[in-house]
Amino acid sequence: MAITGATSVVFLSRLYGLGLALMLAGEAVSAGQWRIVPAISVQESYTDNVNLSPSGQEDDDFITEVTPSISLRGQGGRLSANFDYSLQKLFYSNDSDRNSLSHQLQANANAELVKQIVFLDVDASARQENTSNSGRLSDSNISVTGNRNEVYTWRVSPVVRHHFGNYANGEARITVDQVLNSGGSNSTSTSSDILIDSGSRFSRLPWSISYNQQRVDNESGTISSFERVNGTLRYVFTRKYSAFVNAGLDNNKFATSQDDSDGFSWNGGATWTPTSRTRLEAGYGERFFGKNYSFSLSHQSRRAAWTASYAEDITTTRQTQLDRQLIPLVDAFGTPILDPGTGLLVQVPVDTATITEEVLVEKQFRGGVTLRGRRTDASVSLFNTQREFQLSGGNEEVLGASASISRRLSHRTTVSLNGGWQQSELAGGAREDTRWDAGVSMTRQFARDLNAQASFQRVQQESDLATNEYEENRFTVNLNLSF
To answer: What is the CATH classification number for the domain harbouring 432?
Structure first.
């Protein structure tokens, strides 16, 4: 089922209605606190390369953007919800055939249907992203590249929880979800999860047992199924030190050219928690796809937050699309973000996995630091993702880094600098694409509900494929009004 404009509207309207009906049913007991912020953004941009074409083939254009949006943040006795939606309309001065209308949505809600027993989780998203890392990469819907994909996702998950005194806690969950891509590879999934973990009585020797089963039905007719049972046992030596070991069994059925897709797995490691703000954990083991390493580090001080992690697991493109969050709900220090950045430029993530129905073995490192000063904030992030395609045998590696710094010149004026780098190696290094970007912006707050921003950004992509090389300079001015 390809996604058309009518299909997207019907899909979203039905999803909104279902979510609101289910959530309001859970909130009938108590009113809670709700904040609704409608807003509108008007923006004018000039780009000297709207198609991101190679040198000598550039086409410039002026683009007008009108984006009404609405944001909801709610917390009640039986319901919490976050809802951010915008409707982006783009008008191109030189070629009206490029005009487009795009939905952006991030919504999630959690309701307590039966007190302390039955719960319901619902989430949905609508966004645009690059179809493949092998094409011309853009972080904005303004660029007309042909490497653009509309993505719609929804997920509904009823949950039953029970506490067995101070001996154990139990949870049973059923999840139904769907992922729709305008370029194909649509799919539906059903899964069941059972988790039993130890209660407070086992403070010295905590344990857990989990079971997961998932079936993915792809539009092409292929079916992938995943089944895993896993047990973990931890020994707490002191408040600072503990060690763990887990063992599991995979029973998977998916298209693969590899020797194994299931089997016994094990993992062991240790955790160091010197303070409540610092945690380090590392593990090593084996799974059907080979050696399995894991690592995580988090440290927070009053003005700095550090994170680093490495993990190896099987996944799919659709799972990445389901789990992606475009609007952060908390900042790097864990503080809730009550209002989204309404009126900010809509960004298209450039580190997306190539859309495919294949199962992947993904090895991913992520790290970053955020510094918060009285007038200056800064952040740096790094990532390295390796993907091994289990049917075609192909692989890709994407490395990236980004940095930003913002300075409050006055109570109403902020200047920001940002930069990024991403390198994609395809087919085992047979081809390489490298993308650079750098920009500067100034934001002025004229009133509590009115601000304006002017920005300049330069992007350059180098590639072993000549048609993928381009340079772009873009100037943007936008006005944001919330009500």
So the answer is: 2.40.170
